[in-house]
């Protein structure tokens, strides 16, 4: 039924021997491989994880230092510049520096003259020039003088 020539039989036997040799070699490699010991890839991943954890720790320490420095600066700025934090600056809206009422103060008399004449913009400008007040503070002061 089946006729096999000598060369076909030889080729088939060689193929089977090669397959058994390859299977045996792979089995030997995996059985002799040390178990429990990490390979190079596992060691590399472990080193990467350790480096990432170390870098995260360094970043956390830097963030804490920055947070502490920011808090210290904010406290220092609050103590040196009370107006920035909403605390009272001690500004007297009734009588800004150089604008105390009285017959001996020429600045106050000139501002009162401008207010009485209706030159509110000029009065605000004069107050800002003489005292260094901001626009809003000078306007509030002129508004308080309108009632006098």
UniProtKB/TrEMBL annotation:
Annotated stretches, region: Disordered? 69-107
Indicate the transmembrane segments per the record: 12-30
Which superkingdom?
A: Bacteria
Q: Residue spans with biased composition (Low complexity)?
A: 69-81
User: What keywords sit in the KW lines?
Assistant: Membrane, Transmembrane, Transmembrane helix
Name this protein carries in UniProt: Ribosomal protein L7/L12 C-terminal domain-containing protein
């Amino acid at each position: 039924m089946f006729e096999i020539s000598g060369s076909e039989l030889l080729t088939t036997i060689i193929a089977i021997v090669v397959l058994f040799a390859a299977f045996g070699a792979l089995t030997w490699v995996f059985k002799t491989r040390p178990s429990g010991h990490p390979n190079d890839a596992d060691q590399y991943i472990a080193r990467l994880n350790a480096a990432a954890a170390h870098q995260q720790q360094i970043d956390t320490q830097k963030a804490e230092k920055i947070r502490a420095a920011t808090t210290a600066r904010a406290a220092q700025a609050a103590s040196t510049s009370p107006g920035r934090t909403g605390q009272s600056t001690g500004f007297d809206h009734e009588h800004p520096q150089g604008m105390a009422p009285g017959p001996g103060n020429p600045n106050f008399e000139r501002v009162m003259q401008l207010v009485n004449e209706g030159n509110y913009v000029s009065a605000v400008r004069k107050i800002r020039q003489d005292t260094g007040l901001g626009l809003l503070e000078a306007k509030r002061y002129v508004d308080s003088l309108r009632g006098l």
